[in-house]
Amino acid sequence: MTSPLPDGERDESLDDIRWDEESATRPAELYYPNVAEFVADRFVYFVPRPTPDSGRVWCPSWYTHAQALSRLDSIWRAWETLRWDGALGMSNWWLHHVDPHLSALMDPVTGPFAGCAEGHVRSEPLPIEDVPDGLFDHHTTPSMKDPFSLD
After folding, report:
1. Is 120:60 a contact under the CB 8 Å cutoff?
2. Is 119 left (phi over 0), alpha (psi -120 to 50) or beta?
3. What is the pLDDT of residues 52-104, one digit of tens each?
4. CB proximity list for 39: less than 8 A, separation 6 or greater
5. pLDDT in tens, 124-134
6. Which InterPro entries match (predicted)?
7. Domain ranges of the chain
8. How far apart are CA 74 and CA 97, in angstroms?
9. What does the alpha-carbon distance between residue 86 and residue 101 come to, in Å, rounded to a whole number?
């Protein structure tokens, strides 16, 4: 955008302003079509492979661990957005997205891959008891999308 001209006039046309506003509401074009492509093409090269003495663990079947899939999807989506910020985007991505998620993902005690140090082990969900009928109100609407969908 240009600075205002004298008398409050702008040297932009209404079409220029409309295009700017419409562009701001468009979703950014994705570089990777999905999280799996991002992990295979970029992520695995950013993160060093854990060694036995590193205190970290990774599972090659990462996509079978719900928490890992959710965290890696979050890392990918943040990268897709922050890659456009040439000044601080990647610093922000590493500091506020990758570093904390990696610490949680690769924790050998509490992370989703904790049982996979010697090979993939299926994670078991937390045990829960059935909730008594009527204890909670329904807050969904029939048209809600699947919350686990990657759309």
Report:
1. yes
2. left
3. 888 899 999 999 999 999 999 999 999 999 999 889 999 999 999 999 999 99
4. 62, 72, 76
5. 888 999 999 88
6. DUF4913
7. 60-121
8. 8
9. 22
